[in-house]
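Suppose you are handed only these lines of text.
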Amino acid sequence: MDIGIGRVALVTGGARGIGRAVAMKLAAPDTAIVFTHVNPSSPGAAETLALLKDRTGAAEAQCWAAEDSVAAQRHIEDIVSRYGRLDVLVNNAGLTRDNLSVRLSDEDWRAVLEANLFGAFACSRPAAKVMMKQRRGRIINLSSVVAFSGNPGQANYCASKAGLVGLTKSMALELASRGVTVNAVAPGFIATDMTSKLDEKLRESFVGRIPAGRFGSPEDVAEVVAFLAGDGAAYVTGQTIHVNGGLYL
Ligand code: NAD
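From them, the structure of the protein bound to nicotinamide-adenine-dinucleotide can be written out as follows.
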């Protein structure tokens, strides 16, 4: 029985970690999930695709960088031409290039700002045009606890994640009257490849600072993203929801 596609979601950086958990959480028989990745040789995208195909109406993996604004526009237009709509955009793609500010290169500053902040804008701009016409849509940006607390060695990353909060608020104000919400989720320490680089001692010291006594899971974050993506969050916009086990209040 063909029950048709009632909802279409695009998740950037969905091959692993939080992006994969979000894609899996949004998956449903009447939903099409498109996710992006940037590493065609890594097995993550194929694994995510196989997992999604078991539980969602349609699943696609696309290889393009979030900050490639030409690709973002072309692919979003293509999604809309094939599925007829785009309901949810999750700007999850992100990377770190850590160093103390006095040693941080122009290249590492720009790479992180480009991917994390400009990437979210480059995807949100064409998505917002579609969603405004539909008079319905959800944009969710992955910020971070360090946007609020700061973090030594992560000036570029913290600036990009704090920038996302401003982007979120501004676009929320621009789009609210059209039925489109724009929110951010700010995870604390989440157990993914991004945090697996931490050595054991540092990890233990971080856990000691988290009132919940553990790192979060990608699924902890995906639950909140799914709430913001759903009908029940229609009156929530311009907000940042913290998912950090009490690390930063
Ligand atoms: P991860 O490194 O495990 O996954 C990030 C994904 O984004 C990867 O699949 C990567 O290939 C992809 N990606 C990187 N640059 C990209 C680009 N330019 N275009 C498209 N895709 C790109 O990271 P994660 O821990 O799953 O983090 C997901 C998001 O959540 C990121 O934005 C990250 O900054 C944010 N976040 C993570 C944590 C944490 O503790 N893990 C905490 C706060 C915020």
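What can we learn from it? The pocket of nicotinamide-adenine-dinucleotide is lined by residues 12-13, 15-19, 36-39, 65-67, 92-95, 115, 119, 142, 144, 187, 189-190, 192-195 (CB under 6 Å). The longest helix spans residues 106-134.
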